[in-house]
Amino acid sequence: MIKEKLQRRFIALEGSDILTQRSDEAEKPAYKIKGTPIVYNREVVLYENQHFRLTEIIETGAAREALLRAEQVLLWNHESSKPMAARKNNTLTVREDVNGVYIEADISGTAWGRDGFEAINSGLVDKMSFGFYVNEDGYTEERFVENGKRCCRRSIKKLDRVVDFSPVTYPAYQDTDVQARDVESIQKDFDSDEAEKTNQREKVRANGEEALKMAEKHLKDIVN
Q1: Which residues share a beta bridge with 47?
Q2: Is residue 57 a contact partner of residue 155, using CB atoms and an 8 Å limit?
Q3: Both 188 and 155 in a single domain?
Q4: Which of 37, 49, 97, 205 could form a disulfide with 128 if both were Cys (CB 3.0 to 4.6 A apart)?
Q5: Would you say residue 94 lies in a domain?
Q6: Are 169 and 179 part of one and the same domain?
Q7: By residue range, what is the domain housing residue 158?
Q8: What are all long-range contacts of 104-109, with beta carbons under 8 Å and residues at least 24 apart?
Q9: pTM to 2 decimals?
Q10: For the chain, how many structural domains are there in total?
Q11: Residue 2 belongs to a domain
Q12: What is the reported pLDDT for 24?
């Protein structure tokens, strides 16, 4: 269950996902980044061990309405005290297209913005995270077993709010308490499903045995 709590997801930055652009004007050099931190229809692994795998897909159009419900900011490494750009002062542009959510940010205005530009440009920082909320009716989960491993594929159909984007050194969600509770909840669902299937099999077996006994009794009555 992922509703009501701030969620964070990250992608490893690829050439097409994020680009840097520097304008070396003498009086006021500009440092800009642009790219697609939310990519639609890309299945990503949120958690995996020997026995379990959780993946997630954000479907086309999932962020369309969510982008209207909040004024997003670009943060450095998730730190709210280090905003790099924001929609409210027109240093951050956010738009949605068929590929996902595209951003353009002028991060020239702060020291950490300029330092962040250099870290991204050099490849030291190669991940981008985004924060969002999703309601219970905004996603579906498909549970199945593949090669003996329990698998859950989550499809997010509608985000409630997208609140921030952030270049990050480390992914924000991996091995966190929230993620652990999420996985534990899904595992319990698997256990519940398997218990229900076992109960159904037992009922079928019991009903079969009862039917066989009745058939044997009926046959004896005919013979007698």
Answers
A1: 54
A2: yes
A3: no
A4: 37
A5: yes
A6: no
A7: 7-173
A8: 104/32, 104/33, 104/34, 105/32, 105/33, 105/34, 105/74, 106/30, 106/31, 106/32, 107/31, 107/32, 107/33, 107/74, 108/28, 108/29, 108/30, 108/31, 108/32, 109/85
A9: 0.73
A10: 2
A11: no
A12: 64
> C-alpha 148: how far from its chain's center?
24
- Give dist(CA 217, CA 220) in Å, integer: 5
Helices (H), 35-90: none
Helix (H) or strand (E) holding 17: none
Residues near 129 by beta carbon (within 8 Å), at least 6 away in sequence: 8, 9, 10, 37, 78, 165, 166, 167, 168, 171, 172
Whether 138 and 214 share a structural domain: no
Q: How far apart are the first and last CA of the chain?
A: 61
pLDDT in tens, 151-209: 989 999 999 999 999 988 876 544 444 455 566 777 777 777 665 666 666 666 667 66
Taking every pair of C-alpha atoms in the chain, what is the biggest distance, in angstroms? 111
The answer as to whether 169 is a domain residue is yes
Q: Look up residue 25 and give its amino acid.
A: E
